[in-house]
Amino acid sequence: MHEQTMEQLWSTSQLAGGNVAYIEELYEAYLKDPGEVPEEWRNYFDQLPRADESVTVDTPHKPVREQFLLISKNQHRNRPVSQGSVSTEHERKQVQVLQLINAYRGRGHQHAALDPLGLMERQSVPDLDLHFHGLSKADLDTRFQSGSLFIGQDEATLKEIVDALEATYCGTVGSEFMHIVNTAEQRWFQQRLESARSHPKYSKEVKLHLLERLTAAEGLEKYLGSRYPGVKRFGLEGGESLIPLMDELIQRFGSYGAKEIVIGMAHRGRLNTLINTLGKKTSDLFNEFEGKSEYQSHGDVKYHQGFSSNVMTSGGEVHLALAFNPSHLEIVSPVVEGSVRARQDRRGDTVGELVVPISMHGDAAFAGQGVVMETFQLSQTRAYKTGGTIHIVINNQVGFTTSKREDVRSTEYCTDVAKVIEAPILHVNGDDPEAVLFAAQIAADYRREFKKDVVIDLVCYRRRGHNEADEPSGTQPIMYAQIKKQKTTRELYAAKLIADAVISAEGVKDLEEEYRKALDEGRHVVKSLVKEPNKELFVDWTPYLGHEWTADADTSFDLQALQELSNKLLEVPEGFAVQRQVGKILEDRGRMGAGASPINWGYAETMAYATLLKEGYPVRITGQDVGRGTFSHRHAVLHNQKDASRYVPLCHVSENQPAFDLYDSLLSEEAVLAFEYGYSTTTPGGLVVWEAQFGDFANGAQVVFDQFISSGEHKWGRLCGLTMLLPHGYEGQGPEHSSARLERYLQLCAEHNVQICVPSTPAQVYHMLRRQVIRPVRKPLVVMSPKSLLRHKLATSTLEELAEGRFQTVINEIDELETQAVRRVLLCSGKVYYDLLERRRAEEINDIAIVRIEQLYPFPHDDLEEVLAPYTNMEEIFWVQEEPKNMGAWYNSQHYMQRAINNLKPGMTLNYAGRAASASPAAGYMALHLAQLEQYISEALDLQG
Ligand code: AMP
């Protein structure tokens, strides 16, 4: 066999058709004498699994057959073929016909006419050739059983069968579903596609509606292009079919009972979607173009703006929300999922029927960005599933200026990443609006039936450059030469409808003029828009607007009720076998609840959740291993040692309590944190917590902090009360996992955008978590949470401190030092406090006070001044930190502390005691770590020399 033929067979064949038999024959020959088969095959067979040769001579067949069956399993799933039963030529051909049918199902999409420009390079697929299957044109008139082909008759001529297959699988819809392992899903697709030949006959009304939507899509771009020439708008031109596609999805989900649809999309086509799908008033958009908008916040460019509206469908009113998004492509997808899940949880919609996510993507980003895979991987997990997402790839076949297949991705399609979760993929030619409509219907119905993700790959083009000021033919000459000649989708469809006598040429003109007139008048152009929306379809955020961070919060909780709750958490179901060490933790908590021993971190944190639940606030916690806690302090989920069943005491705090949702997350930070951002920006009433395994893991989610958490309120007016627990602390564990990179978060702080806290006692974490919900303020909360402090003998609190206290932004010296005797004050945050305290006590130093700043941002100026004021004899003041000088709070927060000092002691400057600046966050050797610790503790406590 020639190398080329071999390569072609292996690279393109699904080992369907006659090949299994052929290869088996080869293998027989190989078994007799390996020298009889070509070298390439010999090498391949040499690698196959071997059975024990001493058993029977026939044994080697089995693994081989399994291997081939595995490769061609799609083939055999529908109709297992026994080669031994083939007795006549016709029967042999019958088998080949069935295999041909499956070849089309699996690979027909590779011959589909997907590219409106006709430039897409397609491989030839031998499996779709009659000869490959031992058939020829001479057989076209022979009648064969059509097997599982949904063709409306049991028998048909080969020609009829091939025509049906060509129409179904190689027309303007190319479907990929044979990679799905669930047979029911495969069959579902076969039935839906084959029975309609992937091109149902639509009524005149439907066709006119499609034309009207295309006219709107094209009309807006033309209008903006002539009114605001050269202004960036990332137009949809070339992908206008998106608008009828969206229209169909919304109407269809509405008719299935959806109440809310949340949409995520990047900038391309966004203005068109805002106007033609969500019904934004056109005059509002024009004002934005003309810079006349009122500033409510710092704002964002118009093609990042979100929008909300209600539209009417045959199933009732549906609320639409288009998520705000940054330029960072794809990151909005998990945000949308989180927002959808929050709405589903609010409605008790456990299957995802009432709220539907639609995520739009660009082809290059979909193939290129890792968060796409992470988001897919969320889709069926307990914590993050949303009943399936409709993904639409606006595939204009170019990413900015990169379009060469070899450069832009490694896979045939930009959608191949979706196969990671076996999502079906419908590639559709954007210049066939009816095919696009069909793809939308199939996608919506698949989600409804199977509650899983599905992808529509809208293959289109980009009529202009990356934006309207960009000239594309410098980098894509052939493509743009073709595009210049290309009629628009609307023109093509209008011509078709005129030819089919569905509409007259004047009718087409009328549609154009009607739309232009609506734009001239600045009107809404979505006919289904509900002018007086039903507000019950979405959450009222007004109670959370306009509060300062200083708003007071009473986080106390009646002592007796606290103890009752504490006891309740110790209850486990009859016969539930708690693991020994966990049992010990519960026993300890029993003693803490009884007031018999000091309270530790795990207890206080658990009681924060319990008391919030008791007061009616829902709580959601996700993150890596949050059930147990990375450092084994939480144990919120108990595991029965007998049968591995789980029991979550916090779900049984009281009857009618709100949800306590706690889930271990997949090992993702970016998608998971973005999801929780989406969740918390949709859930004002509850506590939403994300915990990183170690604080520095959050690095992988930096984009979420930068583009959403720290800036979302100021760019888009979207409040967010997300709490992030980032374990942080220098314990000699090396460069990784010591630092949560506090400096990064502090650097992002301005205009009271986030809160950064470093609680150092159990009572502090308790009140901090409670404050986060009880106060009407909704601000992201970044917490440097402890590791060794979870068990530190001094890091304890009392029941009374939980019952009566408050979160203290600054904690004054706790030992009874004589204030007037204090000549040096040490300011610090977090674990270093205990290092300082223990050493000062050991050295019996009485003139150095240690003050903890527990909230580094918004900086508690007044509280710090109040604490420092009595130290009137203070001569020196230090900031002490365990992080290197270029990290931690030193550079970002020193001027805040200095301001308080200036007010009390003009001229006194803040000194630094801590590690020297360092490229690496922490020392890798324990001895070096300890030496550094000794150095700065002695410096801070004035023990040197
Ligand atoms: P949505 O359900 O996302 O369309 O939101 C409905 C309305 O609630 C929006 O138009 C906003 O007025 C308000 N809203 C939604 N989310 C937030 C948020 N995170 N912060 C402030 N207001 C919000």
TrEMBL record:
It holds the Pfam family Transket_pyr. It comes from the Bacteria. The keyword DNA-binding does not apply. GO terms for molecular function: oxoglutarate dehydrogenase (succinyl-transferring) activity. InterPro entries: 2-oxogl_dehyd_N, 2oxoglutarate_DH_E1, DH_E1, KGD_C_sf, ODO-1/KGD_C, THDP-binding, Transketolase-like_Pyr-bd. Signal peptide: none annotated. Residues 599-792 form the Transketolase-like pyrimidine-binding domain. Its EC number is 1.2.4.2. Keywords: Oxidoreductase, Thiamine pyrophosphate. Belongs to the alpha-ketoglutarate dehydrogenase family. E1 component of the 2-oxoglutarate dehydrogenase (OGDH) complex which catalyzes the decarboxylation of 2-oxoglutarate, the first step in the conversion of 2-oxoglutarate to succinyl-CoA and CO(2). This is oxoglutarate dehydrogenase (succinyl-transferring). It comes from Oceanobacter antarcticus. The lineage of its organism: Bacteria, Pseudomonadati, Pseudomonadota, Gammaproteobacteria, Oceanospirillales.
